[in-house]
Amino acid sequence: MKNLLILLSLVFYLPILNSHTLEKAINSNERETKNILRDSYRNPYETLSFFEIKSDMKIVELSPGGGWYTEILANYIDKPGLLIAAHFDKDTNIPYFKRGRAAFEKKISTNPMYKNVEIVDLSSELAKEGSIDAVLTFRNLHNWLGPQMDNIFSNTYKVLKLGGIFGVVEHRANPDTSMEKMKKSGYVTEEHAIEIAEKHGFTLVSKSEINANPKDTKDYPRGVWTLPPSLRLKDKDKDKYLEIGESDRMTLLFKKL
User: Fold this and answer.
1) Per-domain residue ranges for the chain?
2) What span, in angstroms and rounded, lies between the C-alpha atoms of 219 and 173?
3) What span, in angstroms and rounded, lies between the C-alpha atoms of 57 and 41?
4) Which of 57, 59, 102, 119 is the most exposed place for a label (fewest CB within 10 A)?
């Protein structure tokens, strides 16, 4: 009888013990349907596994946008873990940034899934120095090219613990693409991303082709935004761009060693 009670107790607690697996976070019905439809392009399980993300980590997500990855990370991270979302600055005067920050704050405040999420300004120091296990950014480097990228990478290095992870996914430009073309197209070369990271003290540990797309020719009228999900040309050649899919992306794992 005693053994039976122990067995029943284990069965009862098993779902609780397993409630914060990455697979369950990705398959959660709390994610928006439109976001789930992008999984085949963004490969969240493979990407977060490559970045060595664990549920008890303290993580900063840089410029989370509408929260595509935030949905997964918030569902996955559990105490003592914490997710810090470094969004557009609260006091920005740019209308697009204001709307984005307000929409993200509303998203976070209306669902208890985000109880372990804090929001800070992207231009801030992000967190206490040496307190963070991992910093992640997805498809943002093209927005930061220039001094802002230096500032963000510098702050990222400072907040990470020794051995901390810096995971980068970005639209990948062809080698030797000029800075002017990178800014215009939304694609960034691996060489530039690695150069700036190493400039601020990071060591490149590994690369992955998880998010590669050989169909992406990177020569579109409206840059990377020609492809889904933006589809800036709307119905013009829409089937063609849907067939290509989302952009070819670099996936880089840096560490503070």
Assistant:
1) 21-214+248-255
2) 10
3) 25
4) 102
Q: Which two tokens stand for residue 128?
A: 């206490």
Nearest to 246 by CA among 26, 22, 43, 28: 43
Assigned token pair, 81: 């873990």
In the numeric block, which tokens belong to residue 89?
């600055």
Residue 52: CB atoms within 10 Å: 15
CA distances for 145 relative to 178, 187, 206, angstroms: 12, 11, 22
Cα separation, 104 vs 124, in Å, equals 17
Given CA atoms 220, 100, 153, 60 in this order, what sign does their dihedral have? negative
Q: For 83-104, what is each residue's pLDDT tens digit? A: 999 999 999 999 999 999 999 9
**Judging by beta carbons within 10 Å of its beta carbon (0-12, 13-18, 19+), is residue 3 exposed, middle or buried?**
exposed
**pLDDT, tens digit, 9 for 90 and up, residues 142-158:** 999 999 999 999 999 99
Q: What are the distances in angstroms from CA 82 to CA 4, 55, 117, 132?
A: 37, 9, 6, 9
Note if the pTM is more than 0.90: yes
Contact 22, 75 (CB under 8 A): no
Nearest C-alpha neighbor of 126 from the set 100, 158, 98: 158
CA distance 137 to 98: 20
Task: Name the residue among 152, 158, 164 with its Cα closest to residue 196.
Answer: 152
d(C-alpha 132, C-alpha 22), whole Å: 20
Q: How far apart are CA 81 and CA 134, in angstroms?
A: 11
Q: Report domain 21-214+248-255's class.
A: alpha beta
| Residue among 160, 193, 198 at smallest CA distance from 179 | 193
